[in-house]
Amino acid sequence: MIIVKCPLRISLVGGSTDLDAFLEENEYGSVVSFPCNLYTYITLHENNRNKYIINYSLKEERDKISEIDNDISRIALDYFKAGPVTLTFNTDLYSDGSGMGSSSSYMIAVIKALSLYTDAKLSNFDICKLAVKLEKKFNPFTGHQDSYGCGMRDFKRIHFFKNKDPSFNYYNLKMFENFDMFLLYTNITRESNPILKDINVAKTKKQLKVVEDMEQAINKVDFKQMCALINQGWENKKKTSTKILMNQSLQELDARLQSSSIVRAFKLCGAGGGGYFFVMADKNSNFLEEFNEYKKLLTKVEISKEGLTGKIF
């Protein structure tokens, strides 16, 4: 049996500059993000039924790869030309439409599992690069940040280019010493493609300045400026598409977080429209008491120190 786990990612600033439409026009994009300590999990093992068995929210038993409905499994199994196996999907969070890069995280984990199964010699970077390529076969509007944000380690800035591989600047984790970080589930699931298709590329360009300023704040260990820039990036992002915050309950929660004296920074993860709000509050503050009515929807998070891992048992 092979067991793989891959972190989900939280992007702080620079979202949408990793989209193909943006890179095509501007040739460069950049985000600051980190993998968190919440994961997707894939198990892979051979079975004695000579079928492809795929377990996720549904269960599939298929004779041929082409008959598999699950996009990630079908495309990855076809790429590796793998024989009949059992693949099982699990995660620590509500994954559908989470804004946490779960689709990319799952794709990375499946590729890692199949690379171990077929003895393919792939680095984590190779796996992330392949994950982007394969995911675009069924999700053509997906950006590049999810794969590299999930699959590559640590708190980092990712540089994206139109015609070459991304590069990375890695940062010290001390920027988060004074904060508790949470994910607040909105109870709204959504598909990202309609939102990504609607993004105004011209309005997105100002996010690059936010990323540049964020790097300066991190290098200066300026906690206050870092939080201000996360908030600024979120305000900028809301203006790139009316679909990002069109739901009334999202608008109300956005206003509630903005009015709190305890919340230092927050943003809606991913494309928007639902999923999770990422929230930073002063360490050991009474954030949980103030937002007690959301207690069952709150998850405390940290930066993952493991990254993508997989073992054969």
Task: Compose a concise summary of this entry.
By secondary structure, this protein is α+β, with helices and mostly antiparallel strands. Helices cover 35% and strands 27% of the residues. Strand 3 (52-55) and strand 4 form a beta hairpin.
Q: In terms of topology, how is this protein built?
A:
Elements: E1 2-13, H1 20-26, E2 28-46, E3 52-55, E4 59-62, H2 71-80, E5 85-91, H3 102-117, H4 124-135, H5 145-151, E6 156-161, E7 167-170, E8 179-185, H6 192-198, H7 201-204, H8 207-219, H9 223-238, H10 248-259, E9 263-268, E10 276-282, H11 287-290, E11 298-301, E12 309-312
Parallel strand pairs: 3-5
Antiparallel strand pairs: 1-2, 1-12, 2-5, 2-6, 3-4, 6-7, 8-10, 8-11, 9-10
Helix pairs in contact: 2-3, 3-4, 3-5, 4-5, 8-9
Mind explaining what this structure looks like?
The strands form two sheets. Strands 1, 2, 3, 4, 5, 6, 7 and 12 form an eight-stranded mixed sheet that branches. This protein has a four-stranded antiparallel sheet with strand order 9-10-8-11. The chain has two domains: 178 residues, Ribosomal Protein S5, domain 2 (2-Layer Sandwich), CATH 3.30.230.10; 129 residues, GHMP kinase, C-terminal domain (Alpha-Beta Plaits), CATH 3.30.70. It is an alpha+beta fold. It is globular and about 60 Å long. Helix 4 packs antiparallel against helix 5. The longest helix has 16 residues. Strand 6 and strand 7 form a beta hairpin. The protein starts with a strand and ends with a strand. Helix content is 35%, strand content 27%.
